[in-house]
Amino acid sequence: MPDDKHIEMAAMTDVEKTGAYKAIDGEQPKSKEKQIRPGVGGALERYINLVSAINFGFILQCSWEATALTFQFSLINGGPASMFYGTLFAGIGTTIVAISLAEMASMDPTVGAQYRWSAKFAPRWNEFWGLMQGWITVFAWTCGCTSNPAILSNIVVGLAIFNYPSYIPERWHTTLIMWAFTILPFIGNFWFRRLLNPLETIGAICHVVFFIITIITLVVLAQRSTPDFVFNTLTHDVSGWSNAAVAWGIGLLTVTFPLAGFDGVLHMSDEVKKAKIRVPHSMIASVCMNSVMQFAFILCLLFTMGDVDKVANTPTLLPIIEVYYQATGSKHATNFFVVMLAIIVFIAFFNVFASVSRLTWAFSRDKGLPFSNVFGYVHPKLKMPLNALALVGTCIILLAIINIGSTTAFNAFISLPALALYISYFLPIFFLFLKRMSSNPPVYGPFKLGKLGIPINLFAMCYILFIITWMPFPTILPVTGTNMNYAGPLVGAVIIGALVDWCISGRKRFQVPVARPGPEF
């Protein structure tokens, strides 16, 4: 049997060897394709092993923690029924989506991932679809990067209200806190290689140990809910939505958002050893483990929530604080449990920052972004895309200003990345499905679905379409300028901006892919 290294070398695509897009299907590269110029693009080093790759995705999603800190959306829309049955639905659906993308990762593990695959498998207008997909994916991950500091700032404000009831939070307080939480991960990513192993180890231990501690504490101390409340209560008309089905659909945001982002390790592909084998395994493993933990936590939470009215109307804005306080009866214990959630979300922020900076670098390397020579640069000593990292940090700082203008900006930081990410998953799966049905099927990698590929891709696409239908909906009626859901309009603005970019210069500038040095094993 050949070893992993020989499998990797044999499966290497023509793209990786020549850098010409048309060589993917065995055609000769056209002369108009430009090769990479010295000093532009650069190369990252492969240093991430299998354990680190799995831990990267495992911690990045931090699903049960994110669910604990955002389930207020489901309390007013759908309630327990949306949380329990939605968790099962989201776990199965997201796993199927991850399997579909994992097959493509095995064919071509690349930092660009979705935009490169869309360009690779699209039957026509390949460069157009690649550029559009690139803008959507970069936007999705940049917004996803804001969700971590947004959640952390909510924790700080919530604990401040909990411990000091006289404190009156201002919206600009949250913005400043988001900025503060962005600084350390930004600086930490300068030495990401040195921080990776200890961070992944600490994060994985905390992710599991704190989960066990939380479950045991709530089961032993908290007041029990009835099975009828957990399995049969469908909350509607609390938020203004009188239709039960609509309320249930909007409530899915709580359980689908934490499971998005499993493609984070994909954008580290140029730094993963034996990427064609390890990246698909990492994606599927992280989704499966996080789905199980999320389901177990939701089930425990619903049975141990205590007084639902107090939880739903807590002045801290974070219902989980009230849940812990009712269970323990201690402010010190409640502070500890909420802080431990913050620690894991903060560690995950380092991973998200690293992933989106690599994606931005790759898109710039392929001349998808304006000023591509600047943002596609890799620092020769740090071996990292320093300028792309600075761009992502700047975007987070600017997006945080939304808090000042909107009382429900936190909803935008949660729904925005989820909506854009699921859109970014749909296009490559759709084009791969068309490729499967054509007379010229793709060349598969070590991980392939075989005859199951068509039904799995179909299910994944249907699931994505269903999920993204609800994400632009406002969570509260009537809609005003301060409580509207900005996810739909902002995603639409990005798509329009990408179309404008294509018409002005993108069609001449964008290349899929740009040649780069061969991978190191």
From TrEMBL:
It is found in: Membrane. Its main location: membrane. The chain crosses the membrane at residues 83-107, 128-152, 172-192, 204-221, 241-262, 283-305, 336-363, 384-404, 410-434, 454-473, 485-504. It is a multi-pass membrane protein. One of its GO terms (cellular component) is membrane. Pfam families: AA_permease_2. One of its GO terms (molecular function) is transmembrane transporter activity. Keywords: Membrane, Transmembrane, Transmembrane helix, Transport. PANTHER family: AMINO-ACID PERMEASE BAT1, GABA TRANSPORTER (EUROFUNG)-RELATED. This is Amino acid transporter. It comes from Zopfia rhizophila CBS 207.26. The lineage of its organism: Eukaryota, Fungi, Dikarya, Ascomycota, Pezizomycotina.
